[in-house]
Amino acid sequence: MYRQVFVLAVSAAVLCAFTPPASCARHFNYRPIIGILAQENLDDDTHAQGSSYIAASYVKHLESAGARVVPIRINQTEEEYVKLFNSINGLLLPGGNVDIEKSQFTRLAKIFYDLAIKANDASDYFPIWGTCQGFQQLTVLTSNKNLLTLTDTKAVTLPLTFSPGSPNSRLFKRFPKDLLQSLAEENITSNFHSWSLSLQNYSGNAKLKRFYRVLTTNTDGKTDFISTMEAYRYPFYAVQWHPEKSPFEWIEKAGMVHTLSAIKAAFYTAHIFISEAMKNHHRFPSQSEEEKALIYNYQPIFNGLNSIFMQNYYFD
């Protein structure tokens, strides 16, 4: 009993150390539920079922830091999405391979992005995290343009180049110093993307410059691109790299890394995001509706050792 109270007190103290006093005065939600957007099945997925999927590594990534997951399926009504938004405590936009201007994934992302903007403007703290394709989707939603550039970053690991002051950003100031050093010096961030937001295109777009702070950059030798960013006024975070792959994806391929530093980076990215979600107090109308919505109602499918996603959840 005393140990439990002590752990909760320490957790609250850690969160409060990086939270404005007004927010810290609130009771934290220690049962956060994160929505993950599903997306249309990949054309070459021989295991595909239904019409959409979520890679299980994203689910495990969030669960490893103390959250539960609700899948946000495509082809539902806007009314259903609004109800779901008011029941979850944060949103993850995962990586993948869909059209980030015309897909169902994009339609859902815009609905939840707009709801999150409106909620945060009304002091209803709601975080969003974007990984790879999710990063790219956020840039389109914010700028109303596709400003991405082709880069040679299909399967490589890279160290991060930190922008001035970024170690004191909301995201990185909670990382241990030794981990920040590893991220800056070691090839431990997995990149699996053909498109990137170049520094040049970011700098040339007023909407993006006003909205996002650049935390880290990378280069493919020809183009400097943004690899980590956070919004100035909103709890929105985005990484072009894949923290979830190091602990949960096992294909033997260039760009995959399973070092202790990479695993540690994966945990801290999830931890920071879940810490943000603990400041949100949305909840399902009833326990039965919560149980019905959770990812536990679905069975992940093993796609084989040579699959880029070891396990997927599929949805009708």
From TrEMBL:
GO terms for biological process: tetrahydrofolylpolyglutamate metabolic process. Gene3D superfamilies: 3.40.50.880. It is an enzyme of class 3 (hydrolase). The keyword Hydrolase applies. GO terms for molecular function: gamma-glutamyl-peptidase activity. It catalyses: (6S)-5,6,7,8-tetrahydrofolyl-(gamma-L-Glu)(n) + (n-1) H2O = (6S)-5,6,7,8-tetrahydrofolate + (n-1) L-glutamate. Keywords: Hydrolase, Secreted, Signal. InterPro entries: Class_I_gatase-like, Pept_C26_g-glut_hydrolase, Peptidase_C26. It is found in: Secreted, Extracellular space. The active site is at C132, H242. GO terms for cellular component: extracellular region; vacuole. Its EC number is 3.4.19.9. Residues 1-24 form the signal peptide. Belongs to the peptidase C26 family. This is folate gamma-glutamyl hydrolase.
